[in-house]
Amino acid sequence: MKPAAGAVADQNGSHAISTVRNTISSSSNSNGSNSSSSNGQAAADAARGHGENGHTDAPAGPAGAADGAAAAAAGSRLADRQARLRRLQRRAAAAAAAAAAARRPSAREPPDLGPILHGAPSLLELPRSRAGAAAEAAGSVEVLAAAAPPAAADLQACWRGAPLGPLPGGAEVARDRALTARIGAAVSWGQVEDALRDHGRAPNKLHVAAALSRLAQLRLSGAPGRAAAEAAAGKAGLGGAAPTGTVTSNSGGGWDGAAAGRPPPLDDLCEGQQALVEALASRLEGGGWRALGPIELAAVLTALARLDQQLAPHHEEGALAALAAAAAQPSPRRRLRRRVVTCLWALARLSVTPPEGLLRAGVRVSLGIRGGGAAGPAAPNAGPPEPLPPEALVALLWALGRWRAPLGAGEAQALQAAARGAAATLGPRGLAVTGWAFARLRLRPSVGWAEEWAAAMAAGARSANGHDVAMALWAAASLRDPGESAAPGSSGGGGGGTQGRPLSTPAIEAATASAVRAEAPPEAAAAWRPPRQLLDALSHRAAAEAAAAAAAAAAAAPHGGGAASTASELAVSLWALGRLRFRPRSNDLHALASGVAAAASAGQLAPQGYAMAACALARLGATPSAAWLDGLLGHAYEVLPLFGPREAAGLMMGLGALRHIPSERWMRVWWWDTAGKLPEFGPQELALCLRAAVGLGQAPPAGWLRAWLARSLALLRARRMGGPALRMALPAFGALERAPGAEWMAEFWRQTGGEAGLASVSSISSSSSINGGRDKTSSSSSSSSSSSSSSSSSSSSSSLRSRGGSSSISVGNGAVAASSCDLVTWDAFTCGRVLWALARLGQSPPPLWAAAFLRHTRTLLPCCPPQRVSDMVWALATLELSPPDAWMDACAARLAECGALEGARGSAAERAVARGRGRGEDGRGGAAPGAPGLPPRHLARLLWGLERLDPGGRWVPRDGLVRWQEL
């Protein structure tokens, strides 16, 4: 056994943030002013040779030499400060990684930027009994004085090798019972240790379970310590220096809907306390776990979880073997089922994931499903299983949601039935955990269940705390069609994409590739939208929590279980409202924004919170003042070294959506900080950073752009730069009017063209484009059809396989997976944006690549939005590519079907009316059904392209159409 680093995650992070803030402040003031710091930064850029313009002017003459020496000295000083920042950043990252790997009891996973990039944030909570909640609220853990060496360290050696089972005999049984009673009556850790020492013999399994359980209860209840008495007596007991930081414990009310309160924070175990826990756990080594019965196993695992312990590998194996033995018992009774649930909950809190077979067997035993798994055949005339108590059901749901456990159809249906039956007895915490778990498990509950859940959650929102509200809002934002992934480029995929509903489901990664998902009930196919009553109640409660936290921060008073967790809950609540496109009442929205600002000002907002808040406000259509945003960025500036790839990309994306341009100094630090992290960026983060920065009019420095190209080239070669990333990155280069480079483009043709791309790269030297007459294009297309017949046939089928990863295409709505870079997996939006960018950059595709592109887009034209048709027509004309007759036939049919040219007919007044009817867009550049016409800019592009691709009006007659110049 070893202590969990998760218990000190919050204070380590706070200390790292404070250290970085102080270091940056000292570096900013070291030269006397901010301007000198900026000059030092510029000097450092010049010394490195990659300033904003990518070159350094050589100084001329003695004055120039002196200036150069001064600049070099300033650059050297700044380089030293930056090196110190990097060391701090690495130290903080190592501490955060260790804390995340060892995090056990807090169960508060920091929500990821899924909804911003490719996933959704998750907020985890620990269900517990009402007695546990009351014990936590009683007070903080005891604080013991330091003592060295810890007296409990020698117990492990004294107990080694002793039998674990109870000894036979009346006298021994009486002594064992007396020890158990003494342990249960102990009111301090020292009394537990004294009882074990006075026993004179190694504790058996019952004593180990009782002692660990009592120690966990004492830690939660905050029993008075014996530090003063032991110090006076000169005893080296379970002393330990009280830690300076605290960890937020579990929060919220019970399952009966009682008012939710935040318990006081828990201190970490000191050295002596940890030694006693390890000594007790050492009794389970060497097969001791297998000797535990279900009751002892549940008690030991629960106690270790509440004591913030981390199981060593051999302890994990023993615990899982003991759980397998408990789950294999035939015809499990209700009490055994509850013990199995407790074991699953504790293992989830300890971050121990059982194998899939054992997990599903444990779920079946917990739910009372007979005749499945290891439980053996069902008993004759066996009735329906007795339902689990509400607290046990919610604990099981939480554990499965924590694991994102793969469930079969039987387990999923039984779980949904049990949740629906217990919904009336659950309070806000239980309801929030239920909705959260269903979304995490990607279950597809019926619309009736979702409506009942929403009504119950709205009724109990008044007694929910911020954590319950955050979980419920996240669940509401994720429960719509949870079985399907977010459309590429939709709100869950990083911007842009195919036609998607406003409330699309975030892409939640499966726990295992072989997971068997439950079949959806017939009514689950209907779309469910959270009712306004639920969202209004939850947003109002979240605003009240934000206002209370802001007031506590202003008064420098502690707020419940921890200010950092409150800030995290606020960020998740705000993100969920943005995901739902639900704008709260103005007062509530103001309170939420003020809470974010207060948390940032107090240093409580994590890097992820900055990104989530900025993106959420943009999605809600809020317009924060420039001063508010500058203040938020000022606080983010102090912790920029702690930003990871997702946080950095998400914050820049939010700023781009809000149309807020940061200061030059802020951007200079952001460029410098992200340049060193670009090798860690994924394709989505790379594309988002570049697109958002360019959209704000910020040209990347030459050194940053070189690092970006190197990283994206590596991703291209690994076939990880998919269509959604390319459709963001290439238009950004088009806006910069700077091509990525010959090597990058050659790899782009090779990887995106499939077989045609491989052949195209080898023929680039002979021909750089498909131009000339239509006959030449047709012959080129026909000559390449034999070499790429398999690609052509697969592009017209209902399902395609990409070589770069799993990809599935749904012909019904054109939704494609975002993991492949093959152009045959691109949707119409990606094709239009990529071709438009190639035209802006003047990059004519190789003949075979262009032929494959035209074959693929011809299959997309019947359902292509008119604005995407306009983009492709304009780009083909700009690149002087002549599409084949079949492509032009499909294009003309699509333009006639959607009435895209209606806005170019008749007088100016009639055209204005047609444009007014055509403004109902779907949010991705396509007109709404039944709304003819295009915006003037797209209409002018379309007419300009048709004049060059179809000069004679063979496919699209120009009778009654105005010229493009008149638009």
Automatic annotation (TrEMBL):
Polar residues bias spans: 11-24
Compositionally biased residues, Gly residues: 490-499
Region (Disordered): 1-79, 99-118, 236-262, 482-504, 764-803, 912-934
Segments of skewed composition (Low complexity): 25-40, 57-77, 778-803
Top-level taxon of origin: Eukaryota
Annotated transmembrane regions: none
Descriptive protein name: Tbc2 translation factor, chloroplastic
Native organism taxonomy: Eukaryota, Viridiplantae, Chlorophyta, core chlorophytes, Chlorophyceae
